[in-house]
Amino acid sequence: MPTMRDVAKKAGVAPITVSRVINNSGYIREETRRKVEQAIAELEYVPNSLSQSLRFKKTNMIALMVSDITNPFWTTLTRGVEDACMGGGMNVILCNTDENAEKQENYINVLLQRQTDGFLLVPAGGEPAVVKRIQKRGVPVVVIDRQVPGVEVDIVRSDSEGGAYTLTRHLLERGHRRIALLSFSISISTARQRQAGYEKALAEYGVAIDPGLIRHGRPRGDSGYMMTMEAMASMNPRPTAIFTANNFIAIGALNALHDLGIRVPEEISVVSFDEMPYATEPFVTVAAQAPYELGMSAAQMLMSIISGEEAPGNRDIVLPVELIERRSVMTLPMVAQAAPEE
Question: What is the mean pLDDT of residues 121-140?
Fold first, then answer.
């Protein structure tokens, strides 16, 4: 493999001259530049990008840390990040934390040592300490999907509260009053916001909030399955509708209802926050986020901070959520409560 010294010898110049041509630094006579570029081409010399990145303290690498890459939401978001970074000349290192703080910490230790230029972070458990640690090292960070208390940081997220409000109202407009909420840990801001949207819609319709209808588990299918089994066994009367706080919980809920012989939507309605990961019957009514656009927006913001075009701040960019009506909701006979005035 040819070296910089080989290029210098062929061009008849000093190695420092070759370095200046490669890095476009310092004054170089045009004739000398042409000789060096010709020598590089003839020798097929490839500059050592690692040594250059160490010299200029820039690696053109950003880290994307998500909670569960098996979820199509994060897969699509990752594609948005990658497309934005390709257009900006950056490369992406993908890390999957599984909401595990220790695993997240190990990733961050390695990435900081390798002088990663910036982080796109979904903080495990929504904890602020990890954000502060990255900022303390002077490395730009943009948080995705979640709000983080007690720290100033740029955030790009979806309208979780608004989407949950719209989805719950959709059920209320179709006569449902006993609506179970199957969610995940309220230590995560998206769970808190989705529950807040659910409760806001109930309050507007004059429906008392029943804590017995609200359950918290993990944002996974097995947890959705168990919560649904428990809800169907213990709630009396049973709910007429189930609102799942993410798509994997919805899959678990549908599987549980199938095993119990409870038909959807004939005997119970089901809606979900997040688009479903694959075709399911019946097709589920959802509050759909825009993960690709979310990834694109976050990556573009981070690259602007890295390049110095924008200063890091405390921006909170909220993308809209779309209600997609399908076939998983049955309209019930209207009850006495009147709908709220517009």
Answer: 91
- How do residues 277-310 score in pLDDT, each as one tens digit? 765 556 999 999 999 999 999 999 999 999 888 8
Confidence of residue 57 (pLDDT cuts 50, 70, 90): low
Please classify residue 130 by burial: count the beta carbons closer than 10 Å to its beta carbon, then call 0-12 exposed, 13-18 middle and 19+ buried: buried
Q: Do 4-47 and 160-288 share a fold?
A: no
- What are the tokens at 119? 């982080």
- CATH code: domain 160-288 is 3.40.50.2300
**Cβ contact 271:329 at 8 Å:** yes
Angle CA 261–264–265, to nearest 5 = 140
CATH pick for 4-47 out of 3.30.1490.20, 1.10.10.10, 3.20.20.190, 1.10.260.40: 1.10.260.40
In this structure, is the dihedral angle defined by the CA atoms of residues 305, 309, 313 and 314, taken in order, positive or negative?
negative
Going 251 to 162 to 188 to 210, the CA torsion angle's sign is negative
Give the CATH architecture of domain 57-158+290-315.
3-Layer(aba) Sandwich (3.40)
Model-level pTM? 0.80
How many whole angstroms separate alpha carbon 266 and alpha carbon 230?
Answer: 20
Cα–Cα distance, 128 to 120 (Å, whole number): 14
DSSP 316-328: EEEE--EEE--SS
Beta strands in 185-245 (DSSP E): 214-217, 241-244
